[in-house]
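Bug #77: duplicate submission created two jobs. Keeping one. Sequence:
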Amino acid sequence: MRIYAILVVVSVIFTSLLPAQPSLSRFTFVVEDLGGGPIPEASVQVQHWGGPVAGRRRLIQDGIATTDAQGRVSFELAPSVYEVFASAPAFVPAAASVGDRNETQHVFKLAIRQGGGVGVESPPK
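Kept job's structure:
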């Protein structure tokens, strides 16, 4: 019985020394055209800046997903600042830094690319 009590105390002390796991927040991103219409199947990438490797900071991928029919996509992320990139065929991509003001929703407004194409150039003739 005495050994069991000692093990319980050691277990409680050890558990209290472990770092707390950060709670996750739902970050929602909406991708729309300039008129406010949703852009379904737009790609949304979420990244954050990691510590230096060989003296240089690097972007770490946290998630990538496509928007639903309403132009929405959500990620469960730890509270932090994230670099978010939204893109869709025939639209100019957009980027934003989010999370620094406790914002958990961001709306991207994408403009139609000039000529309506995806920016692929024809080879010279």
